[in-house]
Design the sequence.
């Protein structure tokens, strides 16, 4: 058996952070109601009603249940942190619709019940049935935890018990698994919420069957009279049994949901081989297939991974949901084996690729998060990239909502006599260690400043280990305990301080964060000769509104000093990077497309803003990787 | 009326050039027989027989006639230059099949006659009927010129006369035009070959109807019960009447075939507005949408132009046929108004983008000509880019064959008292000027050396102008007449020497061709911070076989000396460029994807070969645009 750490519970952490709190408030107060209204408007809630209902729309979709489920999950976290009877009533209304819709055998999927009742389980590969079930399970567990109400969880247990009769290795059962993973990690949540071993067993079954021969998707396709198309199994991470997979392949969201589920099953079963597969996949992902923004999925084609070191910037897919899925996977690995590599990936994704997915006002969303945006706003074709209020496939907005609503859990975790700090943010954590209650108050201006102040509240002196993550981006961390320098004893990227802590003891972690030029591995051909600007965990970018058109031609000399400050910032309390760079004047190229080298470069001021803040003012170009000189 | 120059006739120019002659011989002796065999094997020739023929394949294609026609055209040029009864017999056999197939009304299309007789002219937009007719016309004219035999031309005149009954502005006629242009320029050839005005009128009709409202393609689609899809008209250059088009749009081959046809019609009709549209389109094309290799068409999607300055390298389409089509367009403009800009574009395409389309041995072909090739040969997915022996859509190989077979025409042209030299290549041109016979012998080691020697053979002293093109790539041309320096009097990029020439007079044009670093316009975002190596008209590239994997990481410092020489060349008589560059060592990045700038660069030797020679040894990476430092 592995002995994973336990993440902080949602209610045990009070966020007080000047950076995060406004985002979380907007998530709760703006995004959440907006999404619910959209769901109602688009028929996603009425979809639970029988076909005859006049409010039912013409075109149901197979994954509508998952959209609503993610929203319920987000709502549950919000209700758990701060009671909200009106919000709770909305959820109860939806749960009642589900209860009415549930079939006598427990089956519960609004699409198939009403639109294609005869096609249940006929296409696991493409039709999202188990995926929707997974999201509903996650929502039901969150809602029970938030409210103590069990109705939704009861519905889902009945549904899962039905699923367990359909799928399994016994005679007459299907040895299938979802084309879009999700239910695996959800079933582990359900196991943890109920203690019922059969849910864990079903999760393990889905994980273990995946990619085996004879291939389920092939047989299923033949049953439907279709070609098996084995060459497409990679898209579903079903090209090999999961323990034999060594590279992150296919649809990036599915991949990381699968890996998260694999990590969960490994954590609960102690399956070392499965865990090793997770480690291998994680390493491949972060060492060869990860955008500097924490985005994953290099191509629009299949919203998918491509191959090692292939990270095109303008053509990047980097779906918001995929960055979120990476957070899920990394967070699970971090509980199994605290290693700052996991937390680094989680932080990189959170502060860049995920945060970019929603506008500052919480009202519009990016599905795709390129690292370079062209053409400029003036382009005569006039197409622009702006966050959208809504998508037909609206997976990302409620995914952001549930992640933000549950964010406090990601900051800390603990074991019997260890407290871990993974992310730095102003907060108060009330938990217990070595059998005694403890309060840990964190103060900082992170991510804009690297000085972290922690203070313990203890009823009596207690011996335990405080493990503080030393971010991978930091070159010279320094530690003080009660104001005195403290030697860094590090283990896998965590500074460990074991001592008998007293009430009022303080710890200060100083993480100097100069602005840095970051280069990519030489095999990332798209970034050769370029650098990105990063400060602390924050990746910066150039935007047209600040730097003019044609960002690609801007050159930042290696020796140009980089300044950080608030004065020139277009955003309150957000520091920007300024420097002197160079560019050419297109006016000197009138009528000329190619010319012998020797053209003049002109000095220009450069202003870089955090990547996650782009596209919050006006449409136009954006660029992360800047040409060196 | 315009007074265009007359291109040299095919038989008037004897190529003696050490560079071109082997290519043209291989074209005749290897490529041409190989293509004919492929056509037979794939049923393209039997396609002319009735359906009942057992040799007829299952899947005819609407543009098969054009493939065979281009091959006949090439064969005709070969026969014209050097009698070849066996080759002539092959053509006669095909012509006999066509004669048998031709319908009583003159209609002549192997696909529609046999496969869909009831669908004639029902989809001009997509089904290549008029396109195939155009290629057959070109072939028939060439074959008549080569052999004096009129049977093929007679068939085609009957077909065109039929077409002229179907299309026109009279009551009951269709105001249509082809979705794939080609017949326009072919009809002008037919007009010139027969002197029959009605063929020119039909060409002008097709040009002038294009893009007008009510839109023919829209009406035609509605007749078929389909949506008009007006947003796709740009693909066919049918989004606007041609005189209102100002940017090169849509499918690049179609575009340049249209522009060539427009230029032809303008030349014959003196239509200044049409000519002005050609000038505008040409300027847009070469100033904003042209690869340095002479390739055009930036995207695979629709094999098409995208927008100004959008020239992606790895994703370039740059179809071989499109570079050829640009040669056609530029060559026609050059006759109308001798301006070296046209000849420069023609030369750029010929020596780079077109030449790259066929292997040195004449047996394999590129359809797509990117300016960067990735991944390396070692890549675990194992896909590689190599020239192919054949394509299902095999437009490019016979297009190369007919261009090469007719190449002598492109070197020279003349008017009453002017002789123009557009391209430099060892050759003897026997023509007339000022009413008297003249012989012009050109000797050079072009494109590897810029010293051009010319000598006149004249029966008696004759006053005329010799106009020598001063290539746009040359910074310091110098001229000598009979060994004495001669002042450069230039007009639109041509050095004009007007004098009374004597038998034995010599002229020497010295075109210094140092290796140059070429930069692209600042708006070509894909090439910012990069240079290409060019010497004379030849664009160079790096290949993996010479420079190792991961070419994108190679840096060529601006101050690194560039050497040109034959010693290190993998190709006989082809000079290569050598220099010292730098690169990083991926071994130092083990397990690291992003790191603060400061990594070591190592000195490496760089070897660049002419772009057109790439992919002649082993598969692997290739790169034209190199990072500066």
Sequence:
């Amino acid at each position: 058996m592995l002995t994973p750490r336990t993440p902080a519970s949602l209610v045990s952490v009070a966020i007080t952070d000047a950076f995060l709190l406004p985002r979380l408030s907007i998530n709760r107060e703006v995004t959440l109601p907006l999404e619910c209204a959209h769901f109602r408007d688009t028929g996603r809630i009425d979809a639970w009603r029988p076909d005859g209902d006049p409010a039912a729309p013409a075109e149901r979709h197979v994954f509508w249940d998952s959209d609503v489920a993610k929203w319920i999950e987000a709502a549950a976290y919000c209700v758990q942190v701060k009671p909200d009877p009106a919000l709770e009533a909305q959820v109860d209304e939806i749960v009642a619709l589900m209860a009415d819709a549930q079939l006598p055998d427990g089956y519960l999927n609004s699409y198939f019940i009403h639109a294609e009742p005869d096609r249940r389980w006929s296409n696991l590969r493409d039709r999202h049935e188990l995926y929707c079930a997974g999201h509903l399970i996650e929502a039901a567990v969150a809602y029970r935890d938030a409210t103590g109400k069990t109705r939704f969880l009861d519905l889902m247990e009945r549904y899962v018990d039905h699923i367990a009769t359909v799928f399994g290795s016994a005679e007459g059962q299907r040895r299938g698994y979802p084309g879009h993973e999700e239910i695996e990690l959800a079933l582990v949540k359900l196991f943890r919420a109920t203690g019922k071993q059969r849910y864990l067993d079903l999760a393990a079954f889905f994980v273990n069957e995946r990619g085996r021969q004879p291939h389920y998707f092939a047989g299923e396709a033949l049953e439907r009279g279709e070609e098996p198309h084995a060459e497409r199994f990679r898209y579903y991470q079903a090209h090999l049994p999961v323990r034999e997979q060594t590279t992150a392949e296919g649809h990036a969201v599915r991949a990381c949901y699968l890996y998260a589920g694999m990590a969960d099953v490994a954590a609960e079963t102690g399956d070392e081989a499965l865990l090793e597969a997770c480690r291998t996949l994680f390493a491949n992902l972060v060492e060869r297939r990860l955008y500097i923004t924490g985005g994953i999925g290099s191509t629009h084609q299949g919203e998918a991974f491509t191959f090692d070191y292939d990270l095109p910037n303008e053509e990047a897919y980097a779906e918001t949901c995929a960055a979120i899925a990476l957070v899920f996977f990394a967070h699970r690995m971090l509980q199994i084996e605290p290693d700052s590599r996991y937390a680094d990936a989680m932080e990189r994704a959170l502060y860049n690729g995920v945060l970019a997915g929603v506008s500052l006002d919480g009202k519009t969303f990016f599905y795709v998060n390129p690292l370079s945006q062209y053409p400029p706003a003036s382009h005569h074709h006039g197409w622009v990239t702006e966050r959208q209020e809504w998508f037909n496939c609206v997976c990302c907005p409620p995914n952001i909502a549930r992640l933000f609503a549950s964010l406090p859990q990601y900051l800390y975790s603990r074991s019997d006599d260890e407290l871990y700090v993974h992310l730095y943010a102003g907060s108060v954590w009330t938990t217990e260690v070595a059998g005694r209650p403890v309060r840990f108050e964190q103060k900082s201006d992170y991510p804009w400043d690297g000085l972290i102040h922690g203070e313990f509240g203890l009823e009596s002196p207690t011996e335990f280990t405080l493990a503080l993550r030393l971010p991978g981006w930091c070159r010279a961390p320094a530690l003080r305990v009660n104001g005195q320098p403290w030697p860094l004893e590090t283990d896998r990227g965590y500074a460990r301080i074991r001592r008998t802590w007293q009430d009022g003891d303080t710890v200060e972690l100083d993480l100097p964060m100069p602005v840095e030029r970051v280069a990519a591995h030489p095999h990332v051909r798209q970034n050769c000769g370029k650098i990105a600007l990063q400060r602390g965990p924050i990746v910066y970018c150039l935007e047209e509104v600040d730097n003019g058109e044609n960002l690609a031609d801007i050159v930042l000399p290696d020796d140009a000093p980089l300044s950080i400050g608030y004065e020139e910032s277009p955003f309150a309390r957000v520091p920007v990077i300024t420097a002197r760079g160079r560019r050419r004047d297109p006016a000197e190229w009138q009528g000329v497309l190619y010319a012998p080298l020797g053209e003049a470069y002109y000095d220009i001021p450069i202003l870089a803003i955090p990547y996650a803040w782009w596209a919050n003012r006006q449409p136009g170009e954006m660029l992360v990787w800047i040409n060196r000189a």
